[in-house]
Amino acid sequence: MILPIVIYGDPVLRVKCKPITEVTEEIRKLSQDMIETMHNARGVGLAAPQVGIALQLAVIEVPPDDESVTYVRINGEDTPLAEAMPLIFLNPKLDHGKEKAMGEEGCLSIPDLRSEVRRSAGVKVEYQTLDGETRTIEADGLLARALQHEIDHLNGILFIDRLSAAAKLGVRRKLKRLMLEWEEDGLIPSKR
Fold first, then answer.
1. Residue 180 covered by a domain
2. Catalytic residues
3. pTM of the model
4. Cα–Cα distance between 40 and 70 in angstroms, integer?
5. Count of domains in the chain?
6. Is residue 179 domain-resident?
7. Which of 65, 136, 147, 159 has a 20 to 30 Å separation from 80 between CA atoms?
């Protein structure tokens, strides 16, 4: 089932999400609905707060032919990108790599806004699966960027919070204009 995506300004996007202590049928269904919602919106990732649920659950699906991803290791073993996707992860713990890289990001909760964000070029994430297994995934490229972006969502952080001071000034003006458009389109409640 395709779920409505929460738009910037909704308080749930700023909440530090609760860990999932038990994987229920509702959590399994939510993860599948999130994958369907992400596909429908043509996104690469989606976190539970983006569908209004403050739980530490996110999904990612990077295209299998994405050339920016040069390695994926699950539990230390090289894994083809296609075999790792879609990635459903709960309660993640992120280790940032030392090397940084700039890359353009957008967000399904902030439609029509994209900006360059500096993030770790490679990451290692420990997470739980829907089967209760603890795994680690190491990756670079778009997958590393998506992991950082979605884990930020689980901590109430948006990609616009990661922008340089100069970039934030430009984004602030555009965001105000977009919010007026979203109000007019009924995507967010009117503040007038």
1. no
2. 150
3. 0.94
4. 27
5. 1
6. no
7. 159
Q: What is the CATH number of the domain that holds 62?
A: 3.90.45.10
Instruction: Walk along the chain (192 residues) and give the pLDDT tens digit of each residue.
Output: 999 999 999 999 999 999 999 999 999 999 999 999 999 999 999 999 999 999 999 999 999 999 999 999 999 999 999 999 999 999 999 999 899 999 999 999 999 899 999 999 999 999 999 999 999 999 999 999 999 999 999 999 999 999 988 888 888 888 888 888 888 887 777 665
Report whether 58 contacts 48 (CB < 8 A).
yes
Q: Is 151 within a domain?
A: yes
Residue 185, in any domain of the structure: no
* β partners of residue 118: 102
Give the domain extent around 155.
11-161
The partner residues of 135 in beta bridges, in order of sequence, read: 127
